[in-house]
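Sequence in, structure out. Go.
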Amino acid sequence: MSECHHTKVLIIGSGPAGYTAGVYASRAMLSPILIQGIEPGGQLTTTTEVENWPGDTEVQGPDLMVRMEAHAKAMGCEIIGDIVTKLEVDRRPFLAICDSGKQYTADAVILATGARAKWLGLTSEEKYKGFGVSACATCDGFFYRGQEIAVIGGGNTAVEEALFLTNFASKVTLVHRRDELRAEKILQDRLFKHPKIEPIWFHELEEVIGTDNPLGVEAIRIKSTKNGQVSEIPCKGVFVAIGHAPATELVKDVLETHNGGYIKVEPGSTKTSIPGVFAAGDLTDHIYRQAVTSAGMGCMAALDAEKFIAEND
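Output:
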């Protein structure tokens, strides 16, 4: 028989939203259990310098998440290194089944599963994933010391990746389908001033070109969005940085979503379409997507859960 545990509040996910919810739920004496998921610490663990976290002029993303986890633990949150593979929310207590076989029942659930990198969906992109194609510069940039690298995208993610990769690459080519970046102005300013970065406007990635034995990237084929003209750029690494999609696999068929799959919550709260189930962070935030706003929503979710439990006990 599977091992089963009960908690008043079950938190699924371990980014800024999840850990902050753990702190506040612990302070409310709810003895929360937090299940970290497939990427403990969330997206900030694949970020280097964080310059917009209040109180820290600059902090390393992984260090910040270690501190958040330690804070939640110190307040009394039980943190479990496991992955929820199934969540049943059709009746209370809610039931979560984990990859380890353990089961957890809960009076309230806080979803803080965040978002994951988007891909272009190209056959060649899939072929070379892990062999020259990546979505994480901080994970894989080191492997391209002295090499030419291409970054695909035009938002904050793409510009941050391009700037970080200049620490290793001899040249970074940024390919964007328009002639204007969506990134914050301070990031754009740094990018345009950097001697190693060359933007290529009005182009999109058509194919990753490489070798089969061993697998490895040699170039990318890009196509003009204006006239369809095709050209090739030599490179050893391709970093796809076109944003993130909410990680809603557990609840996409049972909770109301909007704006391309983000969990819909009541305005001014973290309440989802099912009473007792709350959502916080990038899972529900299609506008701001910042660590500080995710943490704020984690606080809100814990307070919303506390009130729900008090009213329904």
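Check: The longest strand covers residues 203-212. The longest helix spans residues 291-312.
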